[in-house]
Amino acid sequence: MPAVAPALDTDLVAIEHALESCADYTHVEWMLGNTCTYACSYCPAQLHNGSIPWLDYHKVLAFIAKLDSHYTALGKRVWLQFTGGEPTVYPKFLELLGECHRRGFRQSVISNGVRTLRFWDEAAALLDYVILTYHVEYVDRDHFFAVVDRVRRDAGVHINVTMLPEQFAACHEAAQALFDTYQDISVTMKPLRKDFADDLYDYSSAELEVLRGQSGVGRRIVLGRPRSLMSKVFRDGRRTEQWANAFIMKGENRWQGWRCAAGVEALRIMADGKVYRGQCRVGGPLGTIESEVELPSEFITCDRSRCSCISDIQLTKVRD
Fold first, then answer.
1. How far apart are CA 112 and CA 132, in angstroms?
2. How far is CA 40 from CA 21, 91, 137, in A?
3. Residue among 147, 30, 20, 157 nearest 100 (CA)
4. With contact defined as beta carbons under 8 Å apart, do 207 and 249 qualify?
5. Could you give the dihedral angle defined by the CA atoms of residues 141, 145, 146 and 148, in that order, rounded to the nearest 10 degrees?
6. What's the pTM value of the predicted model, to 2 decimals?
7. How far apart are CA 289 and CA 269, in angstroms?
8. Are 132 and 199 in contact (CB under 8 A)?
9. Closest Cα partner for 1 from 169, 192, 237?
10. What is the Cα–Cα distance from 161 to 134, expressed in whole angstroms?
11. Could you read off the pLDDT of 42-88 as tens digits, one per residue?
12. What are the chain's domains?
């Protein structure tokens, strides 16, 4: 990340989805709990220490019905993405996937892949997409590769390799091996941010160059153009495509004062049941899954100095 962020192009008027149909979805990222099978050194304790009880299954189902009703009325389809903690250890995870599948939702999960191949046999058939994270401090490499091989038969697969500076070379090698072994998946070497906030870890200049260029590892376009490919729209009508992660690496992730689709194209539900428009929590809490939440129907003006979460970058933004 450059010490001084570059000035934003004054001719840039919007950030849109490269694939227009992505705007037809409301992407609900749901943190089912903060229990995890790993305790990675770069992960804040509140994201893995199990301090918050799992959300009640019946209350989860009731809020899913509310999501279905509200976003269908807006002409949107719901895409649920379950996260944690490790969401696959939620007590009724497979039953939850089954219920959402019956409603016609699309669904994905962000997982460390630790569950058994027998579990993934059932889960993959109900999922549209699986995002697996390769955590070098804990991963069983052989099992991780076996899970990738199993899941890709039924669902799209993307892999994030978290690039721990102390083991950067090992992470780079694993990312390259995954990319070379499986021709129908995409792989990103994911830069780590301190406490998952705005500032990157202290990577060397050479490591930053690897991360910016991905050095042989990259995002293959599989199963159509993915949601993370965005279009920069200019005043004269020009468009250029860019991966969401690149906005962070180039220091271009600043849209304060712009109108953002957070709450319309996205929703964020925390482990304690609080509901926000996005990971950035712009606009404050909307309520909890147990309360009378007024779900958004309009864009909101961004008041953040930087947009640091990939899921928030992957939203339509219009210069006001």
1. 6
2. 36, 22, 7
3. 30
4. no
5. 140
6. 0.85
7. 8
8. no
9. 192
10. 5
11. 999 988 998 999 999 999 999 999 999 999 999 999 999 999 999 99
12. 24-224+262-298 (3.20.20.70)
